Amino acid sequence: MFGILRTLWLTFLHMGHRRVTVGYPEHKPPLPPRYRGRIILSRDPDGMERCVACNLCAVACPVDCISLQKAEQDGRWYPDYFRINFSRCIFCGMCEEACPTYAIQLIPDFEMSEYLRPNLVYEKEDLLISGTGKYPDYSFFRVAGVKIPGKDKGEAEREAPPVDIHTLLP
Amino acid sequence: MATILIDGRACPARTDENLLQACLEAGADLPYFCWHPDLGSVGACRQCAIKQFSGPDDKTGRIVMACMTQVTDGAILSIDEPQAREFRAGVVEWLMTNHPHDCPVCPEGGECHLQDMTVMTGHDSRRYRFTKRTHRNQDLGPFINHEMNRCIGCYRCVRFYRDYAGGEDLAAFAAHNDLYFGRHEDGALESAFSGNLVEVCPTGVFTDKPFSAVYSRKWDMRGAPSVCAHCAVGCNTIVNARQGTVRRVINRYHEAVNRYFLCDRGRYGHGFTSAPTRLRAPILRQDGIPVPISMATALERFAAMAKDGPIVGIGSTRASLESNFALRCLTGPDRFSTGLTQLEHDLTMQVPALLRATPARNPSLHDMESADAVLVLGEDVCVTAPRLSLALRQTLRRAAFPAADAAKVPHWMDAAVRMLGADAPSPLMVLTPAATDLDPIAATIHRAAPDNLARLGFAIAHRVDNSAPDAPDLSETEIQLADALATALRTAHRPLIVAGLQYANAALIHAAANIATALHATGADAALSLVVPDCNSMGMALTGGIPLDAVRAMARAGHIGTLVVVENDLTRRLDAATLDELLAAVPHLVVIDHIATRLAERADLLLPAASFAESGGTLVNTEGRAQRFLPALTPTMPIQESWRWTQQLTQAATHADAPEWTNLDQIVATIAQEIPALSRIIDAAPDAEYRLDGRRIRSEPARISGRTAVRADISVHDRPLPQSPDTPLSPSMEGAYSPDMPGALMPFYHAPGWNSVQSLNRFQQEIGGPMRGGDAGTRLLDDGIPPETPEWHHDIPTPFTTAPDDLLLLPEPRLFGTEELSALSPPIAARVTPATLRLSTLPAGLQDGGMVSLTLAGEHLTLPVRHDPALPPGIALCPPHLAARAFTTPVRVQLHGDDTP
């Protein structure tokens, strides 16, 4: 008897509490920028693809839902295809952590429901956005010591000009 | 055996090795860069520093370089001692100061020795804040990518390329911090072993260019043990595949055969597996129009063909034992051809008998390296068996080892031993018609026609043992040379004679056998190695069959209803007129092959076979070692193994006794039962029932990625992995993997903390020794019982005579381009140079580079001429197949003078 009354009382008390539930989809909750939702591929400040097809996201993925193939043009690596099977993705963010170029990012968007599982397979065209995402300034190829069009050897950050190997001077 | 204490743990060690080897053999993680098991120690990188204590009371100890310090019994060492750790951390930090920030875009990433060693040393954050030294890269040709910024200056590349492989166009340039390893200018690396730089380089300076175009990380690729199919040496390889295509071929260590190195033809020759000329469906030719048909229709058509008369089969020296044997079952032994013309057939058939009957040893490649005098008689091994020539190069160092022992210098002390041996290398004697790549290091070079070389060989044998027949009518210089060579060979303890079938000259191999027999009779530990042309020539010799000429005779007599040709492009064996005559006399031609050869274009029924990467099988190498290759990929129907096609043809032709093999092991067992010479091929590798700790060995690394996405564009549903009944390897990353795996089943090399190929150390019983799980393959020719008294060959040819306008044209095989399958691989094709005719004396009015026309193997050719004064008179050289397709054996030709200026 006491238990029933206590339960009624506690339920009654909740009437005065602030509501936590949001009336989605009419009301959309504010999500922090670090919320782990849909995965995108970003571009560097110069507008080039950030992904260098290093495969680290794929190997970090605990459910093995990322697959890609490296291609190369003028020293720049890029993915020939980049596929995420979102019907398997658990949004753990390990791919983002593994990415050495800030290319793969999880964004605060989770509205991806589909009736058919094949529609949850995202290709590079579906993943690649036109902006830099969360990291506006970083460009891997400005730091890396590989030669790409517009950046010769020795022109990356903290690099000396190429040495003349024919000299013996110190 | 000595015992050393490593961090308080007593470990067995050998006194002829250094502390680094001892530590690695004891399973300790000790970082190193410049030491390599086959290149020895130079102490260049200072990474393998450890503490050595002079006794139990010594608490201070001293830092020594493990790779430069010999094992002594009772040595007390510490790898974990703080000062040694700090020293190593400091060294790796220095090495990394100029390393570029590019691991994500480096093809070495994930299998990089530098990554492993950096992690092992604990260097995880960069303190160096100044600018990095940079270098410009070079274009090193179609095989190798160059990225000098990644270099850590360990000198391994030049030590392998120059000291070990004898290359001259890679060197160290500049000085101090600016050290540069490259060529004097851009250009393809000339050495036949340049591809090994990829594995020798501990970081990503030299990377595999064709692999980079279809790149995949090491952890993403399935591996399967395979055997190289591009020459008769039978180097062990690992085929890496992903998403249904072969990505690359890397070395698989075999203690007695290829050890740590492959030649470029083997490493880059796999491109034919995904060539546009691959056959993917059965094709029926109706009124000259090729029509793709189903498997069932193909078999029905064959059944109809089989009613039109007897079936004759032509096998191939590039097909596996199983494919040839299945064909032999279809046709019967009397109607199974080796696919060789009479001359090649006779020679190939007598090689195993010759090796068995000769009392001298039939050496493995590693065995050859310890020869202290080598005679190469009429075979350019640098192109016919490249890896064998690399073994012969190592024999020159043989003389240095006694000198090193006398000077108390251990053999692994590479620079010192090379210095000691530089003055008096072991003699290498090269007797060939044309210059070879071994010439610069040979003590004696002699150029003569094959017949004259054979005569010289007989003369040498006579001078070693008087009872051997002598060659009559030798010239004064030949007598002197024979005396000198016989003396050099007689003084050796382990002389080695190498000959082969390149010039299709029986007298040459008989002379070689005579020399080896004579040397053996003197009490020396003599060895005889005979090089056969193709990857399974020896297997074919042991299987037996009739020559192509007999098939032609049967066709002429109308005794062939259907001709079944398995993996043999007869246009490379028979000239056009002969082939036309043969095919005209045959009502039906069935061709089973994996590439669209010129013969396949003429087949009435063409069946798509699996390549070496998609099938299992057995090849017998030139020393008679049967070795198994296993499928790295599952062939997509209707592609299937040649032996499965042939078996189905047998069933379709309603043979009462059609074999019913369901897997590779069953056909291997049948071969072993039916052909006594091949009875031991069962032991070449464990069968498909092999289990390690109750599980199959996994063919994929544990961390293979993208399994649920890689096929998601086709279907999101999981499908069961295709299981092959032919392989003991599991198709996925589930399964056993341990250092005790048999060498014949090694899918990839990986050990905790060791992601690069250097992890191989963990799989060997001792460094440079056999695999812990046993070496691959089984030798078949060791059962010969040589006669009590030496039996001499007496077929001494008459001296070679020249006529003014009559030349003996010899085949001049090339490293790249004359071998059928590798020539279809794009990187190899990029290195093929056009055919030329090499002449010792130019006809009057003809300049070097001028054009000359001749009729060769039924073709009228116009070829550029190259003047080669070193050639003996009356001899001309032309690459086989490149100019005239069917040119393989020496032939007399007449030049028609120059057509164009």
TrEMBL record, chain A:
Tell me if Transcription is a UniProt keyword of this record. Answer: no
UniProt cofactor note: Binds 2 [4Fe-4S] clusters per subunit.
Tell me if Transcription regulation is a UniProt keyword of this record.
no
Q: Which Pfam families match?
A: Fer4_7 (PF12838)
What GO molecular function terms would the record report?
4 iron, 4 sulfur cluster binding; iron ion binding; NADH dehydrogenase (quinone) (non-electrogenic) activity; quinone binding
Cofactor(s) needed: [4Fe-4S] cluster
Membrane topology, record value: Peripheral membrane protein
**Where is this protein localized, as stated in its record?**
Cell inner membrane; Cell membrane
Matching entries from PROSITE patterns are given as:
4FE4S_FER_1, 4FE4S_FER_2
Q: What is its EC number?
A: 7.1.1.-
UniProt keyword list? 4Fe-4S, Cell membrane, Iron, Iron-sulfur, Membrane, Metal-binding, NAD, Oxidoreductase, Quinone, Repeat, Translocase, Ubiquinone
The regions listed as transmembrane in this protein's record are: none
One biological process term in Gene Ontology: aerobic respiration
> Domain named 4Fe-4S ferredoxin-type: which ranges?
39-71, 80-109
Enzyme class, top EC level, equals translocase
Gene Ontology cellular component list: plasma membrane
Reaction catalysed by this chain?
a quinone + NADH + 5 H(+)(in) = a quinol + NAD(+) + 4 H(+)(out)
Q: Which residues bind [4Fe-4S] cluster 1?
A: 51, 54, 57, 99
The residues listed in the UniProt record as binding [4Fe-4S] cluster 2, with positions renumbered to this chain, are 61, 89, 92, 95
Protein function: NDH-1 shuttles electrons from NADH, via FMN and iron-sulfur (Fe-S) centers, to quinones in the respiratory chain. The immediate electron acceptor for the enzyme in this species is believed to be ubiquinone. Couples the redox reaction to proton translocation (for every two electrons transferred, four hydrogen ions are translocated across the cytoplasmic membrane), and thus conserves the redox energy in a proton gradient.
Quote the subunit structure annotation: NDH-1 is composed of 14 different subunits. Subunits NuoA, H, J, K, L, M, N constitute the membrane sector of the complex. NDH-1 is composed of 13 different subunits. Subunits NuoA, H, J, K, L, M, N constitute the membrane sector of the complex.
Q: Report the family membership.
A: Belongs to the complex I 23 kDa subunit family.
Q: What is this protein called?
A: NADH-quinone oxidoreductase subunit I
What organism does this protein naturally occur in?
Gluconacetobacter asukensis
TrEMBL record, chain B:
Question: Which residue range or ranges hold the 4Fe-4S His(Cys)3-ligated-type domain?
Answer: 83-122
Annotated 4Fe-4S Mo/W bis-MGD-type domain residues: 221-277
Per its UniProt record, what InterPro entries does this chain match? Answer: 2Fe-2S_ferredoxin-like_sf (IPR036010), 2Fe-2S_ferredoxin-type (IPR001041), Mopterin_OxRdtase (IPR006656), Mopterin_OxRdtase_4Fe-4S_dom (IPR006963), NADH_UbQ_OxRdtase_75kDa_su_CS (IPR000283), NADH_UbQ_OxRdtase_ferredoxin (IPR054351), NADH_UbQ_OxRdtase_Gsu (IPR010228), NADH_UbQ_OxRdtase_Gsu_4Fe4S-bd (IPR019574)
Q: Name one GO cellular component term.
A: membrane
Entry's Gene Ontology BP terms: ATP synthesis coupled electron transport
MF (Gene Ontology) = 2 iron, 2 sulfur cluster binding; 4 iron, 4 sulfur cluster binding; metal ion binding; NADH dehydrogenase (ubiquinone) activity; NADH dehydrogenase activity; quinone binding
Task: Tell me the superkingdom of the source.
Answer: Bacteria
Protein name according to UniProt: NADH-quinone oxidoreductase subunit G
**Could you tell me which species this protein originates from?**
Gluconacetobacter asukensis
The gene is nuoG
